[in-house]
Amino acid sequence: MPRINRVDVGGYVYHVLNRANARVQIFDNDKDYQLFESVLIDAKEKFDMRILAYSIMPNHWHLVLYPKNDGELSIFMKWLGNTHTKRWHAVKKTTGEGHLYQGRYKSFICQDDVHLLTLVCYVERNALKANLVKKAENWRWSSVWKRENGTEKETIVRMAG
Fold this sequence. Notes:
There is one protein chain. With about 160 residues, the chain is α+β, with helices and mostly antiparallel strands. The protein has one domain (about 15-150): Alpha-Beta Plaits (2-Layer Sandwich). The chain is about 40% helix and about 15% strand. It contains five helices and four strands, in the order E-H-E-E-H-E-H-H-H. The protein has helices at about 30-45, 70-90, 115-125, 125-130, 145-150, and strands at about 15-20, 50-55, 60-65, 105-110. A hairpin with a 3-residue loop joins strand 2 and strand 3 (about 60-65). The chain is globular. The N and C termini lie far apart (about 40 Å).
């Protein structure tokens, strides 16, 4: 039986997430996090995706995305997931040894502006909630850290325009 297509309407904000297969840790060190960030930057540039917020956790990640046109979210996410998986396996020398993610990404449409603020706070406070840091802005692998500490060149997040 074929999979049901996801909602993928442009002009709406989405909370997108995915978790490692069997919930195992896939981000073990700075290089693993940097690898995902570099793939995220490549995907953003390749598909001109608006990334409003993100957080990369030890065994999963969250993105707040704002695609312009219908169908862009699926294309972006397929490339991001496949490319990250291939590069991760290449670095770990585990090519051909199975899935990295437990399945397709999950996406939830953001209903309104009030929910958007709540969503961005939720995503950026994920590491704080998991007791990985004492302050959300101290989590190196998130958009809040990039806003506080990153350079203009390093900025992944671009507010929608």
